[in-house]
Amino acid sequence: MLGALLRLLSACGGVWPTSPAPASTSAAGDHAAEGRDGLLWWRDLARCHAGELSVSVVQGNNVLEDQCHVESAPPLGTCLGVFDGHAGPDAARFACDHLFPNLREAASGPQGVTADAIREAFLATEEAFLALVSRMWDTQPDIATVGTCCLAGVVHQRTLFVASLGDSRAVLGKKVGRTGQIAAEQLSSEHNANEEGVRQELMSQHPDDPQIVALKHGVWRVKGIIQVSRSLGDAYLKHTQYNTERIKPKFRLSEPFSKPILSANPSIISRCLQPSDCFIIFASDGLWEHLSNQQAVEIVHSHQRAGSAKRLIKAALHEAARKREMRYSDLMKIDKKMCLRSLIMS
Predict the structure, then answer these.
(1) Is 101 exposed, middle or buried (0-12, 13-18, 19+ CB in 10 A)?
(2) pLDDT digits (tens, 9 = 90+) for 299-319
(3) Structural domains present in the chain
């Protein structure tokens, strides 16, 4: 049960930022606390009969643009974040470093951790990053095109909060009665222009812009550039002063805009944890492109908890290789655009 793991993490205490270990770290089997196999890296934070938290990532770029963060300490409880960066690592690193400190400040009042406090923390992180963009604009204008999706989970006094910007996903695995089966429940909303509801939302927010979403190479994109409609960063799509010839042509819009195109206002859900709730998978969109929610929870459920995150990513990579009619080993060598990050709390 989740509660047992939370007691374990509280006993461990402290903060665990999950950055890949140096390349010299030796690879190990499923029971290893940490290991590396080529571009695949994994670490298990805590394991016992009560539960486990594990993380894994495949580095698909020369610079790792994704980050994740885990901490367990009062008064917040247990916090987990997955930050899927794009156009560079700066926004993901910034969000990883600042979101939960901002949440501690926002939740310091008598109400404690609430959806409003989480929203305040997201918006404070956005404001601080945009201030950084402003300071660096003269010397490093490309920082205006850097952004990140943010997926955060907070378990506070048996209440689970999940907040999201972009298209990373949190999926709960829960028992189905006494059948021994597991069912998937998606907890997060996805802000991706390929979703009909997201396109309708954008068109209603920008009724005078017939090109607010455009189909490009079979993929719906906001202004024909980016798939996500909500993110942290991406200043060039939020403030028109950054839409100039100083940024790369592929990001530049042909005309100025009067209001932000992308939003940093997260979708937030809360629910009381139940005895049937077994584990939660937090992962970037790369995992979900190749595994359904149900496939993912069945993979976790049908194996021992140790190495769950690594096992999920390997399953997604094997499926990606199958779709491309190539070997897994060859995919790992040539695919430089696939970065999967998975974090499992059980």
Answers:
(1) middle
(2) 999 988 778 888 898 898 888
(3) 2-22+33-187+229-330+337-345 (3.60.40.10), 193-227 (no CATH)
